[in-house]
Here is the input.
Amino acid sequence: MRILHLAAPLALGLALAAAPAAAQKKYSPGASDSEIKVGNINPYSGPASAYGAIGKAIGAYFAKINDEGGINGRKITYITLDDGYSPPKAVEQTRRLVEQDQVLLVFQSLGTPSNTAIQKYLNGRKVPQLFVATGATKWGDPKGHPWTMGWQPNYQTEARIYARYLLENKPDAKVALLYQNDDYGKDYLKGFKDGLGAKASMIVAEASYEVTDPTIDSQMVTLKASGADTFFNITTPKFAAQAIRKAHDIDWKPLHFLNNVSNSVGSVLTPAGLDKAVGLVSSYYLKDPTDPQWADDPGYKDWLAWMKKYNPDGNLTDTFNVFGYSAAQTLVQVLKQCGDDLTRENVMKQAASLKGLSQPMLLPGVKINTGPDDFYPIEQMQLMRFNGKTWELFGTPIGG
Amino acid sequence: MEAFLHQVLSGLATGGIYAIVALALVMIYQATHLVNFAQGEMAMFSTYLAWTMIDAGLPYWGAFAGTVALSFALGIAIERIVIRPVGNAPVLAVVIVFIGLLVILNSVAGWIYTYTIKSFPSPFPGGSVLGGYLSRHELGVMGVTLGVLLLLFLFFRFTPLGLAMRAAAQNPVSSRLVGIRVGWMLALGWGLAAAIGAVAGMMVAPIVFLDPNMMAGILLYGFAGALLGGIDNPAGAVAGGLAVGVLENLSGAYLVGTELKLTVALVLIVGVLVVRPSGLFGRVLVNRV
Here is the structure.
């Protein structure tokens, strides 16, 4: 015991003495000469646990980076905790990451409710809440929340892209909208109306639904009766499948835009019936691993090799594994740019200085751009149409 | 006018779902005089059992019969293992047990089968009738609901077992004195309710897709239907369920807007409880003191 008592002040003294020698190297908690601690929360249990694949993919990518020598000689220690998609649990786990595990930053925390719950805490403690895994538009607010940044294209951007497509290709369309009555649905709605601008009168009918509604049949009947020839389907997977099927059953054949929240072939279009989904239009920014056109693409081949070696339990058809892989690559780029200045301030500064970054599993032409006033990394998407088997991309990536 | 008719028919179709769930609620209420909040999750779980059997290659009707039988047995097991020990506890304790069951069944289903939606086959041919207003499946659901209602009526009215069950629920002490095994009658009530729930689940799943949260919203509307028709009256519950479906659609489309559809159901529940607790077709119970 006595020795320990002595050792503590001694170590402190040594550390103080060593400080001037390491003047160029600057660290916040969670970073050192040998490691960078990255925290993450994900729903590994509960209703949204399908998203847990993202958290696992991120860990698998960091394992690859560590095997290749780490970032500027430092290994990534990845601590990922389960919040069950529950905001109070998210706060508890985030506090654990910051106060007990002492992470440098929280990366890709998942879900709009969870991120909303932890945003104030992380901004108050000045801990980066970097590249959050949600499509809400509110994450790009450098003035109000300088420690929070999104990653994927946000809902409003996506909705503006559809609006732009309509204005250019079907300017006399009569549009009907179905949206979930919450922040997510209203985000899309706002983006779409902003995108139409002066031509917002193209919208002839709007109907909302609650997540507690058993079916949306009544809404679909109302929307069809409006005489609309274009339908923007802003729904989560279960309701998207219902809407696609109901439109077919009541013989309504509008130009049907499906938000990319629900464009999974396996978990939405297949249950709805692939024949009923022919002609749907949606958009995306990542390479779909099931799309045969990427079979010989070097980016896809690297991804496949990584999946087999580092994420063997992961599903090869699941785009979440592409999502986690690509988001982790963006973080690795940021940490590389940080060099030896691994302070939380510099992490945010470097995250806000990404210029024209393209990544192997982003669609060709989609570039990551950020700046001190631009906290929206990805803002381009490409439209695609469903042919009964797979999504077919058309046109070029466009911004909102 | 066409849209109005369409709303009414589509409301009847959804009402058919509420009606069959209401029927299961009434069943358990008749046996125990309690409302089982886990009814929806039990039905959901049974539907997953059916899905597993169909996925394993069983024909639809084989899986259907197997699921009904298995659910019947599981219902009895739940009564024997979980409900019986709290038989003499205050009502609140029993309600907590029901809610516990709800959460457990929901999480176990999510854990085993994941939360991604699954399509569930319908026993009825595809396509629609009445000029595209109703799908054959929706029409079939109403037929099945009426069929189950008829079977229940025959069972309770004309079989000695049905009589014994009614007696055990209404006057346990006297029933025991005339030799009815009251405990087993309760268990049987649970079994029957679980079996009806299984039928309900298998009828609902092709419409709303199968996922662990499939019954959450439906149970609420089913409850409103059961209360409206009278919680102790099977025929009333079916009528109530259909009425709630139509009312929900019409008020959503023409009166209060889609945002307040759920509120309509809740107002209905509170309204019935305040104005006429026995429901439209229920008997008014008078207790002699």
The two ends of chain A are 65 Å apart (CA to CA). Residues 319-338 of chain A form the longest helix (20 residues).
